[in-house]
Design brief:
Elements lengths: L4 H10 L14 E6 L2 E7 L8 H9 L7 E4 L18 H8 L3 E4 L11 H8 L3 E4 L3 H7 L1 H9 L3 E9 L17 H13 L2 E5 H7 L14 E5 L17 E4 L10 E4 L10 H10 L4 E4 L3 H9 L5 E7 L23 E9 L2 E8 L20
Parallel strand pairs: 3-4, 4-5, 6-11, 6-12, 7-8, 7-11, 8-9, 9-10
Antiparallel strand pairs: 1-2, 1-3, 12-14, 13-14
Helix pairs in contact: 3-4
């Protein structure tokens, strides 16, 4: 038996959160345990609109009576889906199944839940423990939580550079900066992302596919920021499923979908309206793989939630070689926090978030009325 059973089982539930892409719904994981033994587990099944708790309870059947449910997010409590169709909430499933204890990692800020799920369980006499592995759960549900708080997607800026900070050489054909282990991590990130964002400069220079090839997983939606519609119709990204965000009027003859959006003061696609549009499409986990100009626009708009920079032990040099943030520079320095460092083969990866980002505020329920875990 693990030294802290709640942590042990919650970690198992957290490992279930990456089974499917479920946005705009959260990808929840749930396990049911009785007398220290795993009874069943479940995860959000998007195509059938099945929640993790409901799946785990259905699999457990009568064995759920008197058991503990571990869930990575507060169970839902509303009887209607976003499209207006009826549904049975997970709180009702828990009560009817005879669950006697619920351990939840974190609160759901969705106004339809926002503590009401916990209140319903507590009113039914179910013991609650809240906050077990909360930091890990907030990270697992980062895109859903960001969208609930701001209406915007969660953006990770990924860049691969040399030790002297160059993305590529200014005078040679495209070259692989990082090693195979680092590239595999990037493909894993693509498999987790709803969309991958690039600028038209990347399309013209590299003609990328932006697919998942080095790991198993589904391809993200490619999104091209192309204010003047310079993407060639022969580009590999001009295919069904690709979104081209432009400031130009609609034109026929494209396989990709053209979306006309407002321009910023420089005549480029404005970042925040673009993010609002992508959120409306249900694309909440975004991987920014662009060149320095578009990346700088995202940072300037305070639209980046975390940076993931891979640094390879190589030197390129060159005054005109591209860097992760090109252009005139940011209006003010951006301080980063929560720095984490990992090695992938010969390369070093740095992960950090802007210090201006804060944790979600608690929902409208008195936390003191609920028992919290440690």
């Amino acid at each position: 038996m693990p030294s802290d059973p709640d942590v042990f089982w919650m970690r198992r539930a957290l490992r279930l959160t990456n089974r499917e892409k479920t946005h705009p719904s959260p990808a929840v994981g749930a396990v049911i345990v009785k007398d220290g033994t795993l009874i069943s587990e479940g995860w959000t099944y998007h195509t059938e609109k099945v929640h993790a708790e409901a799946m785990a309870l259905a699999r457990a059947g009568e064995r759920a009576r008197g058991a503990t449910l571990y869930t990575t997010l507060e169970p839902c409590s509303h009887w209607q889906r976003p499209d207006g169709s009826p549904r049975v909430p997970c709180t009702h499933h828990c009560i009817e199944a005879g669950i006697t204890r619920v351990v939840a990692a974190t609160l759901d800020p969705n106004p339809q839940v926002s503590g009401d799920g916990f209140a319903q369980l507590q009113a039914a006499g179910i013991e609650l423990t809240i906050g077990v592995c909360e930091d890990a759960a907030i990270d697992a549900h980062r895109a859903f939580l960001k969208h609930q708080r701001t209406g915007l997607p969660f953006v990770t800026h990924k860049a691969a550079m040399t030790l002297d900070g160059k993305l590529a050489a200014s005078h040679t054909a495209p070259l692989a900066i990082t090693s195979a282990p680092a590239r595999r991590v990037v493909h894993k990130l693509r498999a987790q992302a709803d969309a991958v964002l690039v600028g038209v400069g990347t399309v013209l220079a590299d003609d990328p596919e932006l697919t998942v090839r080095l790991v198993r997983g589904t391809n993200p939606t490619p999104v091209i920021f192309d204010s003047q519609l310079r993407t060639p119709k022969t580009a590999r990204l001009n295919r069904p499923g690709t979104l081209i965000l432009t400031c130009q009027a609609q034109k026929p003859g494209w396989d990709a979908e053209l979306v006309t959006l407002p321009a910023d003061s420089s005549g480029r696609v404005a970042v925040l309206p673009a993010l609002q549009f992508l959120a409306e499409r249900g694309l909440l986990e975004l991987l920014l793989e662009s060149g320095g100009a578009l990346a700088a626009a995202f940072w300037q708009a305070q639209a980046v939630d975390r940076a993931l920079f891979f640094i390879a032990p190589k030197l390129i040099g060159g005054a005109h070689a591209p860097t992760p943030l090109d252009g005139p520079g940011l209006s003010a320095p951006i301080e980063l926090q929560n720095l984490r460092v990992r090695r992938y083969g010969p390369d070093v990866a740095l992960l950090a978030s802007p210090s201006s980002h804060r944790s979600l505020p608690p929902p409208a329920i008195a936390r003191s009325s609920l028992r919290r875990g440690t």
